Amino acid sequence: MNEFPKKTFWTVISIIGVIIAVVFISLIIKLFDRGHIIFTDVKTPDGPELFSTDPILGAVSPSVVVVYFGNFTCEGCADLSRNLKSIVDKYPNDVTIIWKDFPNTTLNSESSNAAISARCAQDQNKFWEYHDVLMSHQSDIGNDLYLAISKELGLREGKFTRCVRSKKTEKYITESLNQVTTLNLTTAPTLFINNKRYTGNKTLPELETIIGDLIAGTK
């Protein structure tokens, strides 16, 4: 019987080792690429858990990540959303906003439905456009407004209506609310800016100071 040459054997072992190393490195890159964003369904060291289904706005490889727990029926959230949009416009290559739902049906019974409707817009790749219009029309919150916004944005009406009525996207709101409980959050809005918590609304100058300093520290 012919013996398998030792040199060939160790060559094969070396090749297998290289393949395993490449696969492992690829997995690490997937977990920790895109700046500070860990975009697989795992928990970040000191902040909220991030999901691949979370709405994201801004830079692909940011130096500053803002996780935003917000409520579509909260006046302070509407103001903060405008301020954050200004920040992203000012720092398009440095800042990313990640949305987390924090509805409060005790304060407004429609807040959960509003969150569901926005996630239904996300199902048609229009979350942030829908978010902006919904935040600016809080006094009209309800099914008529949801449908009107969907038409304004050119969403497929039947698909959107079925999604809202069936509460198809409620699971995403539940995921966010589970984190609200885990993190002991008490107020919307709440921000985590590079994993540091900020409770309540923040003015545009305040955000520019906080985020501008963080960006400057990476240059």
UniProtKB/TrEMBL annotation:
SUPFAM superfamilies: Thioredoxin-like. Residues 53-211 form the Thioredoxin-like fold domain. GO terms for molecular function: oxidoreductase activity. The chain crosses the membrane at residues 12-32. Keywords: Disulfide bond, Membrane, Oxidoreductase, Redox-active center, Signal, Transmembrane, Transmembrane helix. Belongs to the thioredoxin family. DsbA subfamily. This is Thioredoxin-like fold domain-containing protein. It comes from Candidatus Uhrbacteria bacterium CG_4_9_14_3_um_filter_41_35.
